[in-house]
Design brief:
The protein has 104 residues and is mainly alpha-helical. It is built from seven helices and no strands.
Length: 104
């Protein structure tokens, strides 16, 4: 993970992705999961990023970095789906529900 933190992200992806499921220590697992999630997110692979967050489980549930990464990933997913809904059915009941729930 030191290569990852030095900025060599693409070169380091296969090792953490393969190793992560086998990490037992909760602290190391949380750090590795957060790094793996960040790498996936920065590679624009939202599915893998969300999978990495889910795989963290209890190890990362209270880590501020994990909470932030979850917020960022799910916010992006929500924005993407809202945009898609606006394209395919702008006057649908679901779009009206979203508009009704929007602040201000």
């Amino acid at each position: 993970m030191s290569e990852f933190r030095r900025g060599n992200k693409q070169e380091t992806w296969p090792l953490p992705a393969e190793s992560f499921p086998h990490v037992q220590d909760a602290t190391v697992r949380a750090e590795a999961g957060i790094d793996l999630d960040t790498l996936n997110y920065e590679s624009h692979d939202r599915d893998r990023a969300i999978d990495a967050l889910r795989a963290l489980g209890p190890a990362g549930s209270d880590a501020p970095a994990a909470i932030y990464l979850a917020y960022r990933a799910y916010s992006d997913l929500a924005a993407q789906q809202l945009s898609r809904l606006a394209e395919v059915s702008p006057e649908s009941a679901q779009m009206h529900l979203i508009r009704a729930r929007a602040p201000g």
